[in-house]
Design a protein that fits this description.
The chain has a single domain (about 5-120), classed as Alpha-Beta Complex (Sufe protein. Chain: A), CATH 3.90.1010. α1 packs across α2 (about 60-70), α2 crosses α5 and α4 (about 85-90) crosses α5. The protein has a three-stranded antiparallel beta sheet. With about 140 residues, it is an alpha+beta fold. The two termini are about 15 Å apart. About 40% of the residues lie in helices and about 20% in strands.
Length: about 140
């Protein structure tokens, strides 16, 4: 049902924890089903130098958070905004259809944190022009 990559990121999550003085913080989720994801970004010269996450949710949500942080760490803010839930699923080697919403959560958490950073620094990040944090509620299927 789950790939070895999913199980590895669930058992040994990368970049887990909170971050003091983060340059961007994004939180998304649906409290009704229990999946809540928070991403912290440390950014210097438009490069994501460090990233941490806190996720309350199932194993797929934790694995999706972990792999998403790996995908954006060291990337520019302009590269990171391009992360998609499809890229998260592919990096995990697949997710069961009822768990794909977890990858959407990861994508939205990254965008939410980048949006927060852009708001704090008055930067324009291409790809976030139409972003609205209130659109981040994810509809769960479990």
């Amino acid at each position: 049902m789950y790939t070895e990559i999913v199980m590895d990121h669930f058992r040994n999550p990368r970049n887990a924890g909170s971050m003091e003085n983060a340059d961007g913080i994004g939180q998304v989720g649906n409290p009704k089903c229990g999946d809540i994801m928070k991403i912290y970004l440390k950014i210097k010269d438009d490069i994501i130098e460090d990233v941490k996450f806190e996720t309350f949710g199932c194993g797929s949500a934790i694995a999706s958070s972990s792999i998403a942080t790996e995908l954006i760490k060291g990337k520019s803010i302009h590269e990171a905004v391009e992360i998609s839930n499809k890229a998260v699923v592919e990096a995990l080697g697949g997710l069961p259809p009822v768990k794909v919403h977890c990858s959407v959560l990861a994508e939205q958490a990254v965008k939410s944190a980048l949006y927060d950073y852009a708001q704090k620094t008055n930067k324009v990040i291409k790809g976030l022009e139409n972003y609205k944090p209130e659109d981040d509620e994810i509809h769960c299927q479990h």
